[in-house]
């Protein structure tokens, strides 16, 4: 296993966390929207990660694992029903169907994703520093 594989692993994690942050941003932006672009209430989305094992040049696994987003799924939790009889989208009983976005959970998810991203940046910087120091040993 090459020392340079750390950049592949950290890079794949940074890409996955970036997509996770984009999904969280979309959820937060639509938390109070009564309707999405298709006219239906917005459904919160969640990112699903999966482990990867890239193959080397010879088609044999080199043992390096990374992470990638295998999909973005809709949250199946029930939608919020808010009593607002004067709202134009209210049903006959006066309830408006609102998104199933939990703002507190989304904020926690955002903090977790941004910290994971920053940890991978730090790991790449540390590896770069170690490699540069290794190059100076022979001088």
UniProtKB/TrEMBL annotation:
Domain Flagellar basal body rod protein N-terminal: 9-32
One GO term of the biological process aspect: bacterial-type flagellum-dependent swarming motility
InterPro entries, alphabetized: Flag_bb_rod_N (IPR001444), Flagellar_basal_body_rod_CS (IPR019776), Flg_bb/hook_C_dom (IPR010930), FlgC (IPR006299)
Residues covered by the Flagellar basal-body/hook protein C-terminal domain: 94-136
GO cellular component, one term: bacterial-type flagellum basal body, rod
Keywords attached to this entry: Bacterial flagellum, Cell projection, Cilium, Flagellum
Locations listed in the record: Bacterial flagellum basal body
NCBIfam families registered for this protein in UniProt: FlgC
Quaternary organization: The basal body constitutes a major portion of the flagellar organelle and consists of four rings (L,P,S, and M) mounted on a central rod. The rod consists of about 26 subunits of FlgG in the distal portion, and FlgB, FlgC and FlgF are thought to build up the proximal portion of the rod with about 6 subunits each.
Family to which the UniProt record says this protein belongs: Belongs to the flagella basal body rod proteins family.
Name of the molecule in the record: Flagellar basal-body rod protein FlgC
Species the sequence originates in: Nitrosospira multiformis (strain ATCC 25196 / NCIMB 11849 / C 71)
Lineage of producing organism: Bacteria, Pseudomonadati, Pseudomonadota, Betaproteobacteria, Nitrosomonadales
């Amino acid at each position: 296993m090459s020392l340079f594989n750390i950049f592949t692993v950290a890079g794949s994690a940074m890409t996955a966390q970036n997509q996770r942050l984009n999904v969280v941003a979309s959820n937060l932006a639509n938390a109070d929207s009564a309707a999405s672009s298709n006219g239906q209430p917005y459904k919160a989305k969640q990112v699903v990660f999966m482990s990867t094992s890239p193959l080397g040049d010879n088609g044999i696994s080199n043992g390096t694992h990374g992470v990638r987003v295998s999909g973005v799924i809709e949250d199946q939790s029930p939608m919020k029903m808010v009593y607002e009889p004067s709202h134009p989208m209210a049903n006959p009983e006066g309830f408006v169907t609102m998104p199933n976005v939990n703002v507190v959970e989304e904020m926690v998810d955002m903090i977790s994703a941004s910290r994971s991203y920053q940890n991978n940046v730090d790991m790449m910087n540390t590896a770069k520093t170690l490699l540069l120091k290794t190059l100076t040993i022979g001088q």
